[in-house]
Design brief:
heterodimer; A: alpha/beta; Rossmann fold; 12 strands; elongated; B: alpha+beta; SH3 type barrels; 6-stranded antiparallel sheet; 2 helices; 6 strands; globular
């Protein structure tokens, strides 16, 4: 098997140099990756794993380099899928060079991973990133001495300003072509350990030769690392599980250790301790602090942002401001975009008339497909283009982990992870992006729960529906306090969404996704100055255009379906009306009507088009449209038998129904499973049905209407 | 249990402790070790979250939030710097 089959590394020629990029989370590893590869990158998943695999290319002195971005981990002991992926690639992917990105402001901790990697492979370059932050905090690092102590080349970089990257490339080249031959220091373990592993080490050496560090493998095997055994079987075509000689040798080594009163647990402690102590001693020799209180500013900021009194109010205000800016700010560009796109629609109509195509061809393509597409683009693009950069800015500042810290308690109660709060915040912008954000949750169980429940927070596409219905029917009833009443009811919808999320998360953890919460560790990295330019580029390319692309791919065919249903008639009524009549008795039970449910079904491609489809159906028109004013909309709805209960139930159903097609597609991609995609479809749908039924029947029973 | 030892979640905010023992096993023990919580490591209790749990600690130069479930598996000796 080649690299391509095993790890999906896209080599263009055998001369390509493969470079693995490893490092702790929050070290600026992705900044280095982005700076080196530019836009020349693509992401996917590791084969058979739901861990993202980003690869990029760069050319340096006529050589092509393939840079593989490994998941950010603290260790390589394979406690999680991420660690396993990173370790397997370094062990079995045979990268020509492995670059370990470390954080200059926190070197000791980062050396831990570097030392673990240096045990596996010699071809290591240590990149000490964030040198500018270290300088600001008056932390001095003697890079030359560090290189001497580690026995591998060390390069200092400030990836955000592009400093040191040329040198990094050059050192990578020298190591790849053998101009530099790193000689990493060997971690020395206790004598007892060293003696006990000798025999296993020799056995491994015979088995696999010199392609990997046999001492390291020996230690892992005595430790009983099943994941490594599985990987060795897979990638090296061995059958270690059936190798009885190996089993005996391992057993003997363990007995020897037990004779010295070292149990397996102690063994692990000793191995880790040896590495941590080595990191500590190296760090103490190369790092000097001019200012012992370098973390004071971060601490002061945290004292406010996570304080008992202000922590949560500040968070709500900040996120509320982001949402407000998104909704308000999007109005004008949305209107302009709509104007432009509908002008093009006019031109397209002229073109088709000029071609002399039959009317129905024009209608299908222009009024059906194109108009739906234009609608989705004009209502989705502006809010996303505002929301994503703002959100990425908060991410870049380092604020988001504080949100998880503030809210974790509630998620612990629901047996899930605090980071789910972040995926929910993202979901307010777009549920598809929220689902992708679930990658930050390490435990698969908790990640699935966050994925399935993400749809309970209303996205940008559903806010306008909620706001419109609230202002027409609830605010109208409140008289003088109308705008406050509308705001409060939208706020109530959001809070309800959060409560339902927590409730369903708990329900899932007690039923189909049973399990204890995994161990919770959340790093609160130092605050960093955001890089505005990169924030904008990254959020537009990685998030906005990505989501929009998926939405467009779905909108055009959906437009075709909507147009056909509204225009093809059976008897004297359209298929759409037939559908609505069929669904009507069921819909009435939920306080809705058949047209509303049909609009939600046809609104599958994007929640933004639910109201336009509903207006189209009520007015018996053949293509989606919008009304000039809310008053007109109110009259139309009243004429069709709406009451305030219909509005409340429609708001509830909007909050709790199947995810849009883009989100479902994304869930399928992320979970790699149809089963969980269907679960994500049914959990909110059932919730909405039950909720609407209870409210509608309750209100009727109480005679409130 | 040794009289001088307390679990990390009971360490008062603003004070320091030295790791003496981990009462966890399997993966959860390894995760704690990976954070650098080996014998004799100094840990500072930094701040509580608004509801009181999790609590943020400074461990070997970085700040980590641990839930009481995890922190209660770490026995420390309270020290006065």
């Amino acid at each position: 098997m080649g690299l391509k089959e095993m790890f999906k590394v896209e080599l263009e020629s055998p001369d390509d140099i493969v470079v693995a990029l490893a490092g702790n989370p929050n070290t600026g590893k992705s900044t280095i990756f982005n700076s080196l590869t530019g836009l020349n990158q693509h992401t996917g998943n590791w084969p058979g794993k739901t861990v993202s695999n980003a690869q990029g290319k760069f050319t340096h002195r006529n050589n092509r380099y393939i840079l593989v971005d490994l998941p950010g981990t603290y260790s390589l002991l394979a406690n999680s899928v991420e660690e396993q992926v990173a370790r397997d690639f370094i062990c079995f992917g045979n990268p020509h060079v492995t670059v370990v990105v470390t954080d200059a402001t926190c070197l000791e901790r980062n050396l831990n991973l570097a030392l673990q990697i240096m045990e596996i492979t010699d071809k290591v370059v240590v990149c000490v990133n964030l040198m500018d932050e270290a300088k600001r905090k008056k932390i001095n690092i003697d890079l030359g001495k560090l290189s001497n102590l580690l026995g591998v080349p060390v390069v200092g970089t400030s990836a955000r300003n592009g400093k040191g990257l040329e040198e990094l490339k050059d050192v990578i080249r020298k190591v790849a072509c053998g101009e530099i031959n790193p000689k990493p220091i060997q971690i020395s373990y206790d004598d007892i350990l060293e003696r006990a592993i000798q025999e296993v080490e020799a056995y491994i050496q015979d088995l696999i030769g010199n392609q990997m560090n046999s001492k390291w493998i020996a230690l892992r095997l005595i430790d009983g690392d099943q994941a490594l055994i599985d990987s060795m079987n897979d990638y090296l075509n061995l059958n270690l599980s059936e190798d009885f000689l190996l089993k005996d040798t391992l057993e003997k080594a363990r007995k020897e250790l037990e004779a010295e009163n070292i149990q397996i647990e102690d063994l692990r402690d000793r191995i880790v301790s040896s590495i941590v102590k080595t990191a500590e001693s190296i760090s103490s020799k190369v790092v000097s602090l001019d200012n012992k209180l370098h973390n004071q500013l971060d601490r002061k900021i945290d004292n406010i942002l996570t304080s008992r009194l202000f922590g949560i109010p500040i968070m709500i205000a900040l996120l509320g401001f982001v949402f407000w800016l998104t909704i308000e700010g999007a109005n004008i560009p949305s209107a302009m975009l709509a104007k432009g796109l509908f002008w093009i629609e006019g031109q397209l109509s002229f073109f088709f008339t000029w071609l002399g195509t039959p009317v129905w061809v024009h209608d299908i393509i222009v009024l059906g497909m194109y108009r739906t597409l234009a609608w989705v683009v004009s209502v989705m693009l502006p809010p996303m283009a505002i929301f994503f950069p703002l959100f990425t800015l908060l991410e870049d500042l380092g604020y988001l982990p504080r949100v998880a810290f503030n809210l974790d308690h509630y998620f612990k109660k629901a047996c899930t992870h605090g980071k789910q709060a972040l995926t929910m915040c993202m979901g307010f912008g777009c549920n598809a992006a929220g689902v992708i954000a679930c990658r930050i949750i390490d435990s698969p169980r908790e990640r699935l729960i966050a994925t399935i429940t993400n749809n309970f927070v209303p996205c940008n596409g559903r806010f306008p529906t909620l706001i419109a219905l609230a202002s027409i029917f609830i605010a109208g009833a409140a008289g003088a306090f109308s705008s406050i009443a509308a705001t409060l009811s939208v706020l109530a919808a959001i809070i309800l969404g959060i409560i339902i999320t927590l409730f369903n998360s708990k329900l899932l953890s007690k039923t189909i996704l049973r399990g204890l919460p995994s161990s919770f560790t959340l790093e609160l990295p130092p605050y960093r100055k955001p890089q505005i330019g990169k924030v904008i580029v990254r959020s537009i390319f990685d998030r906005t255009l990505f989501v929009l692309g998926r939405a467009i791919a779905i909108a055009a065919p959906a437009g075709l379906v909507i147009w056909s249903m509204a225009n093809i008639t059976m008897g004297d009524t359209s298929i759409l009306t037939h559908c609505a009549r069929f669904l009507d008795p069921f819909a009435r039970l939920l306080g809705l009507d058949g047209y509303i449910i049909t609009a939600f079904i046809l609104g599958l491609p994007a929640n933004e088009i639910v109201i336009p489809i509903l207006i189209m159906s009520y007015m018996s028109k053949g293509s989606i449209l919008e009304l000039e004013s809310l008053a007109e909309m109110k009259q139309l709805f009243l004429d069709n038998g709406w009451t305030w209960l219909t509005a409340v139930c429609m708001m509830l159903f909007s909050l709790n129904h199947w995810p849009c097609a883009t989100t479902l597609w994304t869930i399928r991609k992320e979970t790699q499973s149809w089963k969980w995609t269907w679960v994500s479809f049914f959990v909110p749908t059932i919730t909405g049905t039950v909720l609407c039924f209870i409210v509608a029947q309750g209100v009727r029973l109480l005679g409130l209407i | 249990m040794d009289k001088n030892l307390i679990t990390l979640d009971k360490l008062p905010v603003g004070s320091f402790g030295k790791v003496r023992k981990l009462v966890a096993d399997g993966i959860s023990r390894r995760r704690l070790l990976d954070l650098g919580l080996i014998y004799d490591t100094t840990v500072e209790s930094l701040r509580k979250s608004p509801v009181g749990d999790p609590i943020a600690y400074e461990i070997r130069g970085a700040v980590f939030a641990l839930r009481s479930e995890e922190a209660s598996k770490i026995l420390v000796e309270s020290i006065y710097p």
